[in-house]
Design brief:
By secondary structure, the protein is mainly alpha-helical. The protein is built from one helix and no strands.
């Protein structure tokens, strides 16, 4: 039982270090966000437009 607990402890520690390494990679290599920058959502160019109603549809 003790051997299992030690293995679980090391496994959780390894996962935590992996998470921190990925976070550091994303933080240092990612785009810098500034207030007012547009959000880039990648979608198909021919997708339908489901934006708010126009032309007084919900007046």
């Amino acid at each position: 039982m003790k051997r299992f607990a030690v293995g679980a402890f090391y496994g959780i520690g390894a996962l935590a270090m992996l998470y921190l390494a990925l976070y550091a990679y994303a933080a240092f290599t990612g785009r810098e966000l500034r207030p007012g920058d547009p959000i880039h959502i990648f979608r198909k160019p021919d997708a339908p437009d489901y934006s708010a109603a126009r032309g007084g549809d919900f007046a």
